[in-house]
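Hi V.,

Quick status before I head out on leave. The structure for the redesign project is tokenized and pasted below; the design run finished overnight.
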């Protein structure tokens, strides 16, 4: 029985490769980087030895030496709702689009779900030396922190609302205009007693409620009620069920702060024999892929998440290149389906 030759021993570092090639470690580094300072024959010989011995240089170490990591931090701050998870359909939708745009441009992603227990949580991320830039999904209740960091750290873009005089660069829809669109849709459906289902501790949702109030005021209707519901899915269903008795006594139009809240609301109303849209009209906010899979299909306000994610990445790359970029506010769009 014949025996094959043993494979070459693996090389663990540049110093070992340099000894095998009979050159300095600096020459090996320059050769593996493709530098023309090393003549073509020597460069090719070093690369072949590295291949034969299974040596792959530490790309992260090389990138750090070049002051470039090719890694982007994607951060989800949850100061407003510590029980909310990354499995939330909105986070999954925008994360997917961000990941596609970043990896297609040759970047890796470092994902962080942050419960901001310390004031300097964002400083620790941006000053870690591990990232070329940061994308933040949602302003949460961390506006002060975002403003402080944006004052000295340029390569950061945030998904969220825009306010006059704001320092941090944001991409997002005009949430107040979106809330007004939802209210106008409910009013056109003949609804006269409106409510907002969600929370108002988050800037985006607070503006959606204000937009709903704008629509009611312009139509001469009473100010909509605020029925509080947390964004954490583990409490959402029970909280919505707790509002059913109030809805049954006279509310006939509900603008929900998110698609997920709207989906739970439609289910809770059906469980209590309240017809949607027969007895109560319901709108969501997001236009997640799931919105057209529900029964009945969800009427909602589109944030154009796919386009917004691409815009975040575009602005971030411009900021990495040293440019100042203004915030981008997209127009919301009413998507009429079956629930309103």
């Amino acid at each position: 029985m014949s025996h094959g030759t043993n494979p070459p021993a693996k090389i663990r570092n540049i110093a070992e490769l340099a000894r095998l090639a009979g050159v300095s470690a600096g020459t090996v580094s320059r050769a593996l980087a493709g530098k023309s300072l090393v003549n073509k024959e020597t460069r090719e010989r070093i690369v072949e030895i590295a291949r034969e011995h299974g040596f792959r240089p530490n790309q992260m170490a090389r990138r750090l030496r070049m002051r470039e990591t090719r890694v982007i931090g994607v951060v989800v701050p949850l100061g407003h709702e510590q029980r909310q998870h990354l499995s939330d359909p909105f986070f999954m939708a925008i994360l997917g689009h961000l990941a596609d745009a970043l990896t297609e441009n040759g970047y890796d992603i470092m994902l962080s779900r942050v419960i901001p227990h310390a004031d300097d949580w964002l400083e620790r991320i941006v000053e870690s030396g591990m990232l070329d830039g940061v994308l933040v999904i949602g302003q949460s209740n961390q506006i002060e922190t975002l403003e402080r960091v944006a004052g000295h750290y340029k390569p950061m873009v945030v998904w969220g609302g825009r306010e006059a005089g704001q320092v941090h660069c944001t991409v997002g829809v005009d949430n107040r205009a979106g809330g007004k669109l939802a209210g106008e849709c409910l009013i056109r459906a003949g609804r006269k007693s409106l409510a907002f289902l969600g929370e108002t501790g988050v800037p985006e949702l607070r503006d959606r409620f204000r937009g709903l109030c704008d629509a009611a005021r312009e139509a001469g209707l009473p100010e909509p009620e605020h029925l509080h519901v947390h964004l954490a899915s583990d409490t959402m269903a029970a909280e919505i069920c707790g509002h059913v008795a109030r809805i049954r006594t006279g509310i006939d139009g509900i603008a929900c702060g998110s698609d997920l809240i709207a989906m739970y609301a439609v289910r809770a109303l059906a469980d209590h024999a309240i017809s949607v849209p027969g007895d109560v009209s319901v709108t969501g906010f997001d236009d997640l892929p799931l919105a057209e899979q529900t029964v009945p299909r969800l009427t909602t306000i589109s944030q154009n998440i796919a386009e917004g994610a691409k815009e975040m990445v575009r602005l971030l790359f411009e900021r990495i290149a040293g440019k100042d970029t203004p915030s981008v506010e997209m127009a919301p769009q009413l998507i009429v389906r079956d629930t309103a």
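Above is the designed sequence. The chain has three domains: 14-57, 71-174+305-331, 175-302.

G. will cover questions while I'm gone.

Best,
W.
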